[in-house]
Amino acid sequence: MKKVVKFGGSSLASAEQFLKVGSIIKADESRVYVVPSAPGKRFSEDTKVTDMLLRAYESASEGKDIAEEIKAIKARYDEIITGLGLEGFSLDKDFEEITKILKENPQKDYAASRGEFLNGKIMAEYLGIDFIDAAEVIFFNAEGNLNDYKTYKTLAARLEESQRAVIPGFYGMGKDGNVKTFSRGGSDVTGSIVAKAARADVYENWTDVSGFLVADPRIVPNPKAIKYITYRELRELSYMGASVLHEDAIFPVRHCGIPINIRNTNAPEDAGTWIVESTCQKQDYVVTGIAGKKDFCTIFITKAMMNAEIGFGRKVLQAFEENNISFEHMPSGIDTMTIVVHADEFIDKEQRVVSAIHRLAEPDSIEIESGLALVAVVGRGMKSASGTAGKLFTALAAKGINIKMIDQGSSELNIIIGVKNSDFETAIKAIYDTFIVEKKK
Hints:
By secondary structure, the protein is of the alpha/beta class. It is built from 14 helices and 15 strands. The chain has helices at about 15-25, 50-60, 65-85, 90-105, 110-125, 150-160, 185-200, 230-240, 250-255, 310-320, 345, 350-360, 390-400, 425-440, and strands spanning about 5, 30-35, 130, 165, 170-175, 180, 200-205, 230, 260-265, 275, 290-300, 335-340, 365-380, 405-410, 415-420. The strands form three sheets. An eight-stranded mixed sheet has the order 3-4-2-1-7-9-10-8, sandwiched between helices. α6 (about 150-160) links the parallel β3 and β4 (about 165). The longest helix is centred in the N-terminal third of the chain and has 20 residues, at about 110-125.
């Protein structure tokens, strides 16, 4: 058994948290490769180390003195080093180099990456295992995307040489020879890449929650945890705003069939959530998860005999493409088509898009409506459960919620409904109560 374990910023925010992480790693000898994030917040008013580094970068870019900012960052790490009792270990030379580079050639990605780099060095020293700089084994191409071939070839060879190692998350080396980072939350992606390169049996992702929850706890008090979720279900929920795992972290392990186990550093006894390709594990509920987003616009297009006009849909979508706008959903009828887009992408270009649709597709009319929220009800169990849609619509009707849009794919994996922004939270609570609370009773 071989496991890759990734720990988030909250799991490594202090020496106390480091000790918890160390106990978790040492409790299972199969946890051989460790991917750490930068130190997160120790308390609600605290500042993440990555944010502190980015402020230092901004100051350096403006030619300001960064001595005090670097001193404050170093104090965070010195506190961890002292708390772990790592006598004789120091990051002084690393901070001298970071200061020098930020003064002479400030680069945003380099500054942002140092939080993981330094935490990785401490973790390797604390565990007494190898340290592998991610910039030496993870590579990006000229377009800024992961260079899969070079990365996996180099990383796999390097891991063969190290039976146990720490590989910092979040960054790698760009085509231009400079450090490049993934988007925020990118340590999840690094962990997935390491798991694939190591041919791991399991990728454990440790954070500050015990796995995925059926609904957002800010909307539904104490929602139930999800025991098993498939890659496809996770993709749907992540896209609709569920944010426990960086959604790009799914792809490297998905193709290898490596399961992801989301665990809680502060409650290591909890089983967490298993993210898998497929499973015959019995579901507690028909619905796996409920998630959503606010602030969409709908463009309602009508044209008589639209269904008989070859190429009509392509012409309409060309209007959005010309204006560099992606669409989210496209439910349609015989003489109608609705395009759903993010309001922030569309609102400043709305009249250009309307003009383009008239020019390209010659519709009878176009109506625009804003203030739409989308709610996705996701669950592999929906395919075999009759009456799911009926229960969903009944639950919303009981709360006086008008459904503005319905979209269900042929896979029957999810149902997406559109409601007013003002009904968003009420809709999620009503769906949760119907499928989770009432099922429990």
